[in-house]
Structures are given as C-alpha cells and as structure tokens.
Amino acid sequence: MTIELTGNWETGFALDYHTIRSIPVGIDDYGHTKFETTRTEIGELVYQLKYKNDDGAVMLIVNKIKQAIKGIEIFNYLVPIPPSNKGRQNQPVLLVVDALSKEYKIPVIMDALVKNTNASQIKNVEDTNERLNALQGFMSYNPKYNISDKSILLVDDLYDTGSTLKVATELLYSIAKVKKVCVLTLTKTKGKR
User: Fold this and answer.
1) For the whole model, what pTM was predicted?
2) Given its phi and psi angles, is residue 124 left (phi above 0), alpha (psi -120 to 50 degrees) or beta?
3) What is the CATH number of the domain that holds 62?
C-alpha cells in the first residue's frame, strides 16, 4: 500500500501508515500515558530500527521500497531529511538512504540539508501553520554542493504534517535550484494534523 503525499514537491509517497491502532493502557512511572500499539508491517520495521536498534530491518525496508515504488533509478541524488535526535544510535533515514544508494547506484548527499536549531522544540508544535513558521530558519541548504538542475529524491522516515518536507523542498528549489524534488517517507501518521 502506498499513500500519496501532496505538497510543494512534484510527487510524493509514504509506503504505509505507521500504526493501525494505539490504545491507552495506563500511566508509566514518569506520568506518561502508555499505549498498546499495533503497527503496520513497515511501521513495525521502522520502530524496530529506530528504537530497538535492529539493523536487520534496513534491507527489509529497502525491499519494501523496491516493491512499492518504481522509477527510483531516474534520480540524480538521494537527500535525507536530517535527524531530529542526533544522539540516537540508529538513524533510520540515514541507514535506509545509504542502503538505497547502494541498491540503485545513486549518490546520496547526507549533509545537503542541515538542521540549525533544536528540532525537538518544533516536534511539540501541533498546529500546522505554527509548525511551518517555526521551521523557517530551522533548516538550511549546504552550499558546498552544486545540485542545480538535478532530480532529487527527498527521504524521511515519518510524514506527519509535511511541514519539514515542505521547508526542505523549498530550500532545494529556491537555494539549490534543483530541477525536480520528489518525496518518499517510510510511514505516515493517521493523526489529526
């Protein structure tokens, strides 16, 4: 199953929703609500990679991408959205983009986009317009790369409001002067945003 994502990019897709359902089951020792969550197959793979450090999930995710998305080989570069939590042992987007790069023989530019501020502050902003405003200036394009007139596949792990991808796409079009941006996310939330 793929889900079409609309934005300022040419085309965009998520492989599937992240969760099927999530039910509150109590409160943990820190006062946070605990949930019993049922994830989609790709959602579970992303969860295992991101939070359980299961490196074996990378190639399973790449195989899901190969089955679901055709035409990746036409892109000149793969560009990941920079991670929000730089302290995380496994950075799912970077690992998946690296594996996609090897699989399709497409160069990846890991640091084409750079986060300038603490992204965790922005993650807590729920209103889409407030989020877009907060994101302005939070990311920049690394000018050491000349990717003008190139086709870019922009990759992220989770699509929520699309704000981060919209800002990244705008940077790639307006600053880097790329020809085309398409978006691929591994999963999408079902949330109210």
Assistant:
1) 0.87
2) alpha
3) 3.40.50
